[in-house]
């Protein structure tokens, strides 16, 4: 396989030395970019955009055309899995995701099956292949999935939720049924990520957006245990190259030691975590990814530079840091501010390597 021109992301995830700290941003392709909104309008809707590999490839590459990012992330959504399971996904304008047939009855839960990615999620794999061709080994491509628990939240609630009443009721009343969903989701996520790796994804990330809403022992039992199983089933290498994995539990700052012991190569941290303390807690076993507050990008260039400098200084000297936000980019972010951040991280991080 030809080597990457810029392999700083892969090296940092594997805690190998790099000349500077690599940076990419969660939701780097999205509504804050006018060209994204144009392509989405051409596609008809967000979901049609995800399902059209030509257009999904186009929007994956849009942020890389503007900014000196060190990685691309395949344009898709975590809810492609519940959609492929037949739960009927739609996105109402300005309202977030909706599943037409959320899991409520024991009978429905017992008949849930893991989709075959080559059949039901082929459009994502086609996008991965097309993006790899277009990138021509300039920077690596990240594949991703939701965590088994985060997917279960949407599958049971039927959409976004502030309290997670339905899924938490299920967790406490019928843990056996939630475990069944998580077991199926775990197999689905493993097969999906492995299919992305086989199609060309060079690193993979598990988004556990809602694991942080759980209590400590419930997090271990219902979220982390299933991510650990996924990690155990992942292909670690493809064509002789290591495929690093990133595990991100939003709100997981209290459990970093356990997350670091899950078998992932890197732990994503949100902005509530002190990255200096996080580094001391996880030791040398894993890399860290994060963790600027996405809201900092709403402020002006001086503030962005100084906040970026503070994150870099807090991580300190040496390998094993991938700069990112602590969650996805806000749609209200001025694109020029992203340029300021990317350039600041590249420039200011050299002193730390
Ligand atoms: O990071 C990237 O650039 C890759 C693309 C990506 C999207 N969603 C595109 C998207 C990724 C990695 C995701 C992951 C995702 N999707 C998560 C986990 C990360 C997180 O944000 O916590 C979750 C929970 C979802 C589910 C989801 N998708 C929600 C709740 C929403 C609605 C909220 C919103 O921001 O609108 C989406 C829609 C979505 N996914 C958009 C994008 C660009 C906006 C849709 C649009 O264009 O209208």
Descriptive notes:
By secondary structure, this protein is an alpha/beta fold. The protein has a domain at 43-65 and 73-235: TIM Barrel (Alpha-Beta Barrel). It has helices at residues 8-13, 34-43, 46-51, 53-66, 80-84, 106-110, 117-120, 122-135, 148-157, 165-173, 175-199, 216-233, 256-260, 275-282, 301-315, 335-349; strands at 72-73, 89-92, 96-99, 141-146, 203-208, 237-238, 241-242, 245-249, 266-268, 287-292, 321-325. The strands form three sheets. It has a seven-stranded parallel sheet. Strands 2-3 form a two-stranded antiparallel ribbon. It has a two-stranded antiparallel ribbon with strand order 6-7. A hairpin with a 2-residue loop joins strand 6 and strand 7 (241-242). Helix 2 packs antiparallel against helix 4 and helix 15 packs parallel to helix 16 (335-349). The mean pLDDT is 97. Bound molecules: coproporphyrinogen III. Coproporphyrinogen III is lined by residues 26-31, 40, 46, 73, 75, 77-79, 96-97, 144, 160, 207, 209, 328.
